[in-house]
Specification:
It is built from 10 helices and 10 strands. By secondary structure, the protein is α/β, with parallel strands linked by helices. It folds into 2 domains: about 190 residues, Alpha-Beta Complex (2-enoyl-CoA Hydratase, Chain A, domain 1); about 45 residues. A 6-stranded mixed sheet has the order 1-2-3-5-7-10, sandwiched between helices. A 4-stranded mixed sheet has the order 4-6-8-9. Helix 1 packs parallel to helix 2, helix 4 crosses helix 5 and helix 8 packs antiparallel against helix 9.
């Protein structure tokens, strides 16, 4: 179904593996098209409750974009390329199902941007993050200048953007770019365990958490939170969840 991705669904957890190990899983047009299509599958397949995005092999999550595809592009063509990338990454960021990046190895350039578009990140001990676009006379084009500021703060983000320096997994943890650092052997198990916990919660409430948190970077974020909070009160899951809590029993959520 996909030429550059491996996918598997296990107990509601859908794992997407970018599979170009000979290129350290670099993002080219094929990968981006496949990511676009696979996000449609995530949205439309009710059996999928949560998603892991990772890279094949142990050296690279995604080691950047395929720079060969940048050669000869005009300004307008470059802008169109970035717009397509932003739109695909918005589909990830705004997905109403939880998406965690399991970062193994290099997450550079577009790879770092992909990881940041996920709802949060877990890194293996050998992970490295960076936005080296200034080395090419460019800046990140898939949302990296925005998400990096939101995740690590303006000062640290500008240092990383302007120096093109890489940071290791433990520095990324200190900065707040990742939530956990684990061994390579533990990476997928740790990620799955968190998703398994999340998917026991009310699906519509999880979706509203994502919507409201994404709105925090906008001027109307508080209003979005109010609206989403109110909408949750109209759901059967909210009624079930509160009844179960008060009755000291386990809730049985239906996503309604």
């Amino acid at each position: 179904m996909y030429t550059t991705l491996l996918t598997s669904l296990d107990n509601g957890i859908f794992t997407i593996t970018i599979n170009r190990p000979d290129k350290l899983n670099a993002l080219n047009k094929e990968v981006m098209n496949d990511l676009d299509k696979v996000m449609d599958e995530v949205e439309n397949n009710a059996a999928i409750k949560g998603v892991i995005i990772t890279g094949s092999g142990q050296k690279g999550f995604v080691a950047g974009a395929d720079i060969s595809e940048f050669l000869g592009l005009s300004g307008d063509e470059g802008k169109a390329l970035a717009k397509k990338g932003q739109d695909i990454f918005f589909k990830i960021e705004n997905c109403d199902k939880p998406i965690i990046a399991a970062v193994n190895g290099f997450a550079l350039g577009g790879g770092c941007e992909l990881a940041m578009a996920c709802h949060f990140r877990i890194a293996s001990e050998n992970a490295k993050f960076g936005q080296p676009e200034v080395n090419l006379g460019l800046i990140p084009g898939y949302g990296g200048t925005q998400r990096l500021v939101h995740l690590v703060g303006k000062g640290r983000a500008l240092e990383l953007l302007m120096t093109a320096n890489m940071i290791d997994a433990h520095t990324a943890l200190q900065y707040g770019l990742v939530n956990y650092v684990v061994s390579q052997e533990e990476l997928l198990d740790k990620t799955k365990s968190i998703l398994e916990l999340i998917t026991t919660k009310a699906p519509l409430a999880i979706a509203k958490c994502i919507t409201a948190a994404n709105a925090a970077i906008s001027a109307d974020g508080y209003q979005t939170e109010l609206d989403a909070f109110g909408e949750c009160f109209e759901t059967e899951d909210m009624k079930e969840g509160t009844s179960a809590f008060l009755g000291k029993r386990k809730a049985n959520f239906k996503g309604k």
